[in-house]
Specification:
Blueprint: H1 2-32, H2 39-57, H3 60-81, H4 91-113, E1 128-131, E2 134-139, H5 140-162, H6 164-174, H7 176-181, H8 186-208, H9 220-233, H10 238-259, H11 264-278
Antiparallel strand pairs: 1-2
Helix pairs in contact: 1-5, 1-6, 1-8, 1-9, 1-10, 2-3, 2-4, 2-8, 3-8, 5-6, 5-10, 6-8, 9-10, 9-11, 10-11
Length: 292
């Protein structure tokens, strides 16, 4: 029973990390109808920016704030300079461009920072918590991660549901031409969507990187699992992204604990295939996906 509890809490902790990546993908999909395959690479780059600030100032929270600002600027710049050229083009164009962006950012990071692994400081202690003599398998930093992800999910859901900005972002994503006729500044909304996704990606990088070494390719594996979590929950749902991350994290934790760590990637792929075959709109999608 104690072993089961440990595996469950470890799965919840890992699931929150996957949920952070999934949230950034959900935000950019809902706001622009583009899947950004470079999201992990962008998060990695802002983590390097944060590490530079932390090493020079000794202040983690200053590095945290600078990383979020860098993510906001990077997201807006990517949309203006790179993604804008794919507007009104076949959807495959955006896919190819974001994959190229992924390769380019990781290559640039390798040139600027080398490919050596670097440790990254956590916000809070990574010493395991326990109740009496029972180890819980989570840390104070895991609790911070969970709170940050849940707060981000709540803010995204409220923004899209109850604010005029959220309404304009959704209108732009569903039908840019009609939105433009209704007075929506489509270009600004696209830039805003990418900027907010960049900020959220930077948050995900700050939450993920303390549990891994930082390198130009350090976010690749986490991004794949975060993408799986987003598909499980449904790309339309911030709540689904969190739920998808938790489901995936717990399932993979049980698989690693009871069957061995070598089956984790196999179970992640199996989960993605099952959802795509049985419920392609995601477990938490209440209606068929609308097409642009």
């Amino acid at each position: 029973m104690v072993e089961f509890l440990e595996f469950t809490l470890e799965g919840v902790s890992a699931g929150m990390i996957y949920a952070a990546i999934a949230l950034s993908l959900v935000l950019i999909w809902r706001g622009t109808r583009v899947l950004n395959y470079a999201q992990g690479a962008m998060a990695m780059m802002t983590s390097y920016v944060a590490l530079i600030v932390i090493n020079h100032t000794g202040n983690y929270w200053l590095g945290f704030a600078v990383a979020l600002a860098a993510g906001l600027i990077l997201g807006a710049a990517v949309e203006r300079i790179v993604i804008r050229s794919t507007v009104d083009k076949p959807p495959l164009n955006a896919v190819i461009v974001t994959i190229g962006l992924l390769i380019g950012i990781e290559g640039l990071a390798g040139v600027l920072f080398t490919s050596n692994n670097r440790s990254f400081p956590p916000a809070y202690s990574i010493s395991g918590l326990s109740v009496g003599t029972v180890a819980l398998g989570i840390t104070r930093n895991d609790i911070f991660t969970a709170v940050a992800v849940l707060a981000a999910a709540g803010l995204i859901a409220l923004t899209f549901r109850y604010t005029s900005v959220g309404l304009r972002l959704r209108a732009t994503a569903f039908n840019a031409q009609v939105a433009r006729l209704l007075g929506v500044r489509v270009g600004r909304m696209l830039t805003l969507g990418w900027a907010l996704a960049g900020l959220l990606g930077a948050l995900a990088g700050m939450l993920v990187t303390p549990s891994t070494f930082l390198s130009p390719n350090s976010m690749d594996g986490v991004f794949v699992l975060g993408f799986t979590a987003a598909v499980i929950g449904g790309l339309e749902s911030p709540v689904g992204a969190v739920a998808g991350g938790l489901i995936l994290g717990v399932v993979l934790s049980y698989a690693a604990g009871y069957l061995g760590g070598e089956v984790v990637n196999l179970f992640g792929l199996a989960a993605l295939m099952l959802v795509l075959m049985l419920r392609p709109n995601g477990l938490f999608s209440s209606a068929p996906a609308r097409r642009v």
